[in-house]
Design a protein that fits this description.
By secondary structure, the protein is mostly helical. The protein is built from 46 helices and 6 strands. β3 (about 455-460) and β4 (about 460) form a beta hairpin. It holds the Pfam family Uso1_p115_head.
Amino acid sequence: MLRMFEAQAPAKQTATDTITTLSGRLANATLLEDRRAAILGLRSFAKEYPASVASGALRGLIGSLSKDGEDVDTIKVVLETLLMLFSPNEESPEASDDIAMWLADEFTQRQDNITILLDLLEYHDFYSRLYALQLISSISSARPERTQECILSAPLGTTRLVATLDDPRDAVRNAGLLLLTDLTQSSTELQKLVAFESAFDRLFRLIDAEGSLSQGGIIVQDCLSLLANLVRYNNSNQSLFRETGCVAKLTELLPGGPNKKTKGRPVEDEDGWESPEKGKNIWGLLAVLRMFLVTGSVGTAPNQNAFAKSGLLQQVLDIAFSSDSAIPIRAEALYTCADMIRANPRLQEGFAQLQVALPPPPQVPNGTHSPHGNAQAQRLYVIDALLDLTLTAAPSHVFDARFAACECIKAYSYNHVQIRLHFLHRAIEGHKAGEDETPNVLTTLVEGPEGSGIGGSGGDGPLPTVDPHRVWFAAVIVFHLIYEDPEVKHILMGVSEGNEEQGEEVVTCIQALTSNLIAGMLRGADERLPIAYLMLLCGWLFEDAAAVNDFLGEGSTVRSLVDVAARPPAQQQQQQSQGQGAGAATTTLVRGLCAALLGIVYEFSTKDSPIPRRTLQPILTNSLGRERYLDALTQLRQHPLVRDFEVLSSSAAPGGGSGPGGSAPILFDPAFVDLLKDNFSRLARAIDRDPGREQAAHALAAEGGIDRDLVDNLKGTLEAQSRRLEQAEAATLDAQRRADQAVAEQRRAHEERAQEVGRLRAETEAVRRARDLEAREREREARRREEALAADKERLAADKERLAAELDAARKAHRDAETRAAAEAARLSAQLAALRADNGRLEDEAQRATAQARAAQASLGELEAKLAESQRRIAAFAETVQEVERELERNKSEAAEAAAARAKLEEVAGRDREEIRLLAGRVQDRNARVEELEGKVDRVEREKKGMEERLTTKEREVGEKEEAREKTQGELDDLLMVLGDLEEKRTRDKKRLKELGQEVSDGSDDEGDESREESDDDANEDVD
C-alpha cells in the first residue's frame, strides 16, 4: 500500500527546475505582484546557485529595473538579488570569479544598463541609492575601464555620483565616496569631471563634519584617498584646487592652523578627545601635499609658491619638530618640506630664516636623555635644527626622521650655487673655530665615528657605542655640496688639520677622510662608515685632478685600498667568522667601491701627480690584477643594493624595513648610484688606458678653470629663459584648465539637452497616444459639463428664489419682533410710572427705586437702534422719578410695597431682554446663510468659466502639436526624398564605374541597404 502511494506521489523538484520556473515567470508575468514574487524566489537561490540564477534570470532582473522602476519594494529586491550574485557563498558549488566578470560584461556592454543604475540615484529612497552604488562598485571592480566609459557617456553620470557626497545618510554617502575613489584611480577624464563638480569643497565639508584630522576616522582617510586621486599627476585639477581657495582649507586641517570648531560637537569633546586614527589622518594629508610637489611637473612651482604664501611651510615644519608627533609623521612632514622648497630659488633662500621649536632629545627606557641638549624645547633656525636632528646620535627608531631631515638639507641646497657656498663657508668656519652649538658636517667627518657614542639603550635593545649614521649623513650632505661643482671642491680642499708653526703635521681634508676610511676598514667597523667615506671620495675625486693629486699625497693609502680590493671573498668570509671584518654582503660592496675609487684615481691622475700614472698603473695591474679589478666592479654592479637600488629605496625610505640591529638598509645616495651606473663602463676601461694619455678635462683644469663671468652671464640668460618658459607653461596650464572646464560644461550642457530631448520625445509620444482618446472623450466631456452646468444653474436659481423668500420672511419676522418689543416696552414704562407715583411718598424706597431705574435704563441702552424710542421713554420716566424724590420723606412707610413692585418689574424686563436677544441671533443666522448661498453661486460661476478656459487651452495645445507633427512629417518626407536622390546617384555612379571596368563590392550594396533600412526604421520611430 505504501509503495503504491509512493509511486503516485509527484516527482521532487530540484533547485535548477525551480530557478527555471521562476525565471520564466519573471520574464512572462504581466502583474507586478507576480514578478515581485518570482524575484523573491530567485533571491533565495542567488547565494547558493549564482550561476543558475544569472544564466536564467539576469536579463529579466535588469529589465525589471526599468520596467518596475516606480515600485520601490520591487527595485530593492532586484538590487539585493544582483548584489548576491556578485558575492555568492564561497562554499557554493557554483561559486566562481568568472560569474562576476560575466555579470559585469552584461551590464557594461549596454550603456542603458549603467544608465538605469545611475537613474536610481535620483530617487530619495535609501535602499535604491545604497544598493545602486554598491552594484556599480561591484561592476567597476570586475570591469573598471568599461564602467568608466559608461559613466562618462551617461547623461549627468558624474554629477549624480558626486551628489551622493551630500547625502545626509552615512551609508549612502560612504558608498558614494568609495565608488568615486575606485573610479578616479586611473581615469584622467573622470578626475577632471569630478573635480569640476565642486568635489574639493564637498570633501573638505565631509572631513570637517567627521571631526577633521584629530577626531575623524576611516571616512576621513577615504576622503583623503579620493582627494589624492583627483590631484595625482593632474595639473588641471591642481590649478583648480589653487584657484578655488582650497589651499587655505589645508592650513585649517593641519595641526597648528586657524582654530575652527567642528559643527555639532561640544567644545569639551573636541579639546579632550582624539581619534586613534589621528596619526594616519595627518600622514595621509601630508602625502596628499607631496602629490602637488612632484619634481619636474609643470604645476610644481605654482603649488610651492601657493603653499608657502598660505603659511603651510612653517606649519608643516612645526609638525616635523613637534614632540607630540610620531616618527613616521615627522619624517613625512620633513619630506613634504623638502619637496616644497626643492628647485625654487626664492623659497630656498627664505627657508633658512624660518625658526622651529626643537623638541627634547629622545628618551631611553631608563628615563634619561642623550647627553646632547637640554630637556627644554628651544627656538632654533631651521637649518641648525635639521643638522641637530640629522647628526646627533639617536636610537635606531628615529632613523626615518633623520633621513628625512637629511633630504630636507639636500633640497635646501639643490641647484643653488650661492646657498652651497654659504653653507660650506659656515661649516668651515664652525669647524675651524670648534665652538658650534649644533653638529658640524666637516667636524663629524674629520673626527670620524669616535665622537658619536651615546649612552643608554634604544627602544628595542642596547644602542651601539658608535652611531654610524652620523658619518653617513654628514658624507651625503657634503657629497651633494661638492657634486659637479669644481668651485666648492676647490674651497673644501683648502681645509686642513694641524698647525705647521707649532710643529704639528698638516693633514688635508681629503687625507683626513682617507685616514678615517682606512682605520674603519682595518677595525671591521659597521659597513656604513667605509661606504660613507668611499661615496664622498669617489664623488670628490671624479673629474678633479687637483683632488686626485691631494689624495695621492699619502702613498700608503693606495696600497691599503689595493689590499682590500684584492682580498678574495673566501678570505673575507673567514675574517668575518673570526670577527675581523664585516659581513659578506658588506665586503662585496666595500671591495667594489675600493676598486671604483682606485679606477677614478688612475683615470684622472696626471704625470705630475705625487704618484705618476706610469707608476700607478703597475700597482693596479700587478698588485691588484686586471681580473680582480674587473671582478670587484662587476660584483658591485650586480649587488642587489646597487642593481635594484630604485626599487629598494622606494620601500626603505621613508619608513622602510630595518636591517640587522634595527638599522635601515639604506647604504647609498641616489646621486652616487647614478654616478656609478653612468660610469661603470668607463671605470672598467680605465685600467687598460695608456698611462701617457690623460683626460682632456685635466688640461682645462691646468689652465686655471673657466671664466666665471661667462658662466654667470650664461646662467643669467638661462634663468631668464627658464622664467619665460615657466610663464609659458603656466599660461598653457591655465588655457588647458579653461579648455577642460569648457569641455566639462559643454558635456554637461549636451547631457542636459539630450535629457531634455528625451523627455520631450516621451511627452510627445504620450500626447500622440492620448490624442485620439482625448479627441473622443472631449465632446462627451464637454456635453456632460454643459448639462451639469445647466442643471447646477437651474438648481442655483431655485435655491436663490427660495432663499430670497426665506430672507423676506425673516426680515418681516424681525420687523414684527421689533414692533412687539416696542409695544411691550411702552406697556412696561406705563406700569413703572404708575408704581413710582403710588410709592413716591416713601423716601427710602424711592432711593432704591431710583437705583433700579438707572440700572434698567443702562440695560435698555444696550439694545439695538430699533429700540431707541423705548430708551427715550425710559429716560423720561427717570426724570419723573427725580421729581418724585422730593416726596420720599412722606412715603417711608410704603417702602416694602415698592420693593416688591420693583422686583416684579425687573423680572419682566429680564424676560423682554432675553426675547430681544434671541430674535437678533436669528436675524444674524439668516443673513449669514444668505451670504453663504450667494458665495456658492459666485464660486460655481467662476468654476464654470475656468473649465471653459482650460477646455479652450487644451484644444489650442492639441492643434499646435498636430501642426508640429505635420511639420516634422514634412521634413522627414523631404529627407527621404534627398536620400532617394542620393541612392539613385550612387546607383548611377556604380553603374558608371562598372562600365569603366572597375570592380564594385556587393558588400557595400548590402551594407548600404541595411543602413538605409536602419535609417528608415529610425525615421519611422522619430515620426511615431
